[in-house]
Amino acid sequence: MTSPEAREEAVLEAVRQRRELVNDAIPEELPIKRPERLYEASRYLLDAGGKRLRPTVLLTTAEALADVESLSAEYRSFTPLDESGPVDMMAAAVSVEVIQSFTLIHDDIMDDDDLRRGVPAVHEEYDLETAILAGDTLYSKAFEIMLETGAEPDRIVEALDVLATTCTKICEGQSLDVTFEEQTDVSPDEYLEMVEQKTAVLYAASACLPAILLGADDETIDALYGYGLDIGRAFQIQDDVLDLTVPSEQLGKQRGSDLVENKQTLITVHAREQGVDVDNLVDTDDVDAVTEAEIDDAVAELETAGSISYANDTASDLVAQGKNRLEVLPDNEARDLLCELADYLIERGY
Amino acid sequence: MTSPEAREEAVLEAVRQRRELVNDAIPEELPIKRPERLYEASRYLLDAGGKRLRPTVLLTTAEALADVESLSAEYRSFTPLDESGPVDMMAAAVSVEVIQSFTLIHDDIMDDDDLRRGVPAVHEEYDLETAILAGDTLYSKAFEIMLETGAEPDRIVEALDVLATTCTKICEGQSLDVTFEEQTDVSPDEYLEMVEQKTAVLYAASACLPAILLGADDETIDALYGYGLDIGRAFQIQDDVLDLTVPSEQLGKQRGSDLVENKQTLITVHAREQGVDVDNLVDTDDVDAVTEAEIDDAVAELETAGSISYANDTASDLVAQGKNRLEVLPDNEARDLLCELADYLIERGY
């Protein structure tokens, strides 16, 4: 039996290997060209880092479906299940990362967040106009890149349909998120619906797109979509927990910023139901003014109310459910990695 | 022979008839649903009016290609040239109008314009967050709507490719436009390149999409794309002329706002080459502070430099070139209408 540490190290190594390939592919798909300032701004966050979890889910799902050994297949020329013409799976992987980056740029404007991945947000590093336009450029580029996979036309059409409806749902989720900031009666179910739309759908798209592009059956596509929704919701819940528990430096932004900005999380929604005066846990509305001691006190109160455990338990249940759905896949190393990735999403420390 | 007035009235009637059908289709393709505020904001400018010129070009081109009598075919179920399954041409028409509306919402934020079509801009009527998100929602909705045309998969793929690259070019053009505001050495050619990307490509897409969706040959697709580029550039040049010559009330925004905001137009680019001190034609940078008399004086100076005639001549040449390209189409009533539409774009008074 392997130790938990060894298992986590193996997952991280698998993520790292795929991340490097994705990092190489991003400048190939999104070269800096005229007008340079626009493309530099579009690439700014992509180049600043990121774990590339969604592309990793996508590439690993492709390997599991094709039943090939880890990293043995050429992602740029991946053989479909019916052995029709090769599919550029890396293009699909970059496409979802580009969508993710577009949403981060626009979200940072909307949430007035100054820092992202330890660097200034795009609207801070450049300006509001450039940030809006950089996001808009990435938006259409994601579609252009997905159009280059070379898959059969009916599969490309289905893949683009998933991409477009995913983007619409992300907007709907972000809209709900903004509305929730002014509400004090959001239920856990409403919160989870919002998280599904805002965050989980892009994991769902990442998991089901290889099945679509490689020509898998509808049952497989649906099961993988469900896996993505489950682990995506778990990921967001864990993100909300980490926002309270990880030092600012490691987080790349102020710890507790969600609390300061009155963002709803599963933790605050639960705490409010337990009678905690969530709106007054932190006195200030300004992330630059809050102290570490204030955040510590707030976290202690949320722990006493059982809200952090509640969030952890919900995330664990979602991960277990997601892993079960993977039984549609052949039993292989890549499927095991998808299970371990799911575990990692809620065990990760940042 | 018909009089110019009778000809213009006939074009306007043809535009009106198609506009009404497009206006009926917009709420069908973009119903107000949860989250309501987001969809209301997304529909706000679309519902405020607009001439629907791009959808009219698209629908009329479809009629010309199919060689059917004006308004005789059912746009929702249009027969392709090879008589394969019916195509929802109205969905394609709404899709380009939705793209247009998304760009207006984001452009108004970037240009800090308060008024559009005589009503407050979306970021004024709602707020910045909602306006960004409404634009983002329309962006993906345009792709979703185009995916619903029911055309053959390879044609849908090509249509989506045109839509995606068009959006990318619009962003590139808008980026150049913003950059040009701080430059005093923009040449007429550079200006026309910017206009091609920012404005003309959506006319080009509108003209060539029916050819793609109905299965026309590449020569026809290319010629129609060229027609759209030509009339689209002419349209923007005329818009720049109208910004100086049409009363604010009729324009739906302050007359001369381009001059006040130091926006480059073909007129100012030409005038600068003639030695006019364009940057000091108007003293203020604030559209709310400028007087009608100041605008009148500026226009008189631009007229003396020959810059307004130069813009009018350039637009006329482009329209003539665009009309020539239509010879790939069968000689029919719809083709005549496309010629008259081209003339209308530069003869219109607002």
Helix-strand makeup class of chain A: mainly alpha
Q: What is the fold named in CATH at topology level of chain A? A: Farnesyl Diphosphate Synthase
Q: Name the beta content range of chain A.
A: under 5%
| Tally of DSSP helical segments of chain A | 15
| CATH superfamily placement of chain A | Farnesyl Diphosphate Synthase
Radius of gyration of chain A: 20 Å
**What is the total number of structural domains of chain A?**
1
Q: Name the CATH architecture of chain A.
A: Orthogonal Bundle
Strand order of the largest sheet of chain A: 1-2
Binned, the helix content of chain A reads 55-70%
Supply the CATH class of chain A: Mainly Alpha
* Quaternary organisation of the protein chains: homodimer
Q: What is the end-to-end distance of chain A?
A: 26 Å
Q: Which H/E pattern describes the elements of chain A?
A: HHHHEEHHHHHHHHHHH
| Most extensive chain interface and residues per partner | A-B, 40 and 41 residues
Q: Provide the low-confidence segments of chain A as ranges.
A: none
Give an account of the 3D structure.
The structure is a homodimer of 350-residue chains. With 350 residues, chain A is mostly helical. Chain A has one domain: Orthogonal Bundle (Farnesyl Diphosphate Synthase). In chain A, 70% of the residues lie in helices and 1% in strands. Chain A has 15 helices and two strands. Chain A has helices spanning 4-29, 36-47, 53-66, 89-111, 122-125, 128-146, 153-180, 188-214, 218-245, 248-251, 257-260, 266-273, 292-304, 307-325, 333-347; strands spanning 115-116, 119-120. Chain A has a two-stranded antiparallel sheet. In chain A, β1 (115-116) and β2 (119-120) form a beta hairpin. In chain A, α1 packs across α15 (333-347) and α3 packs antiparallel against α15. The longest helix of chain A is centred in the middle third of the chain and has 28 residues, at 153-180. Chain A is globular, with a radius of gyration of 20 Å. The mean pLDDT of chain A is 94. Chain A binds chain B through residues 34-35, 37-38, 106, 109-110, 128-130, 132-133, 135-137, 139-141, 143-144, 147, 152-154, 156-157, 160-161, 163-165, 167-168, 171-172, 174-176, 178-179, and chain B through 34-35, 37-38, 106, 109-110, 128-130, 132-133, 135-137, 139-141, 143-144, 147, 152-154, 156-157, 160-161, 163-168, 171-172, 174-176, 178-179.
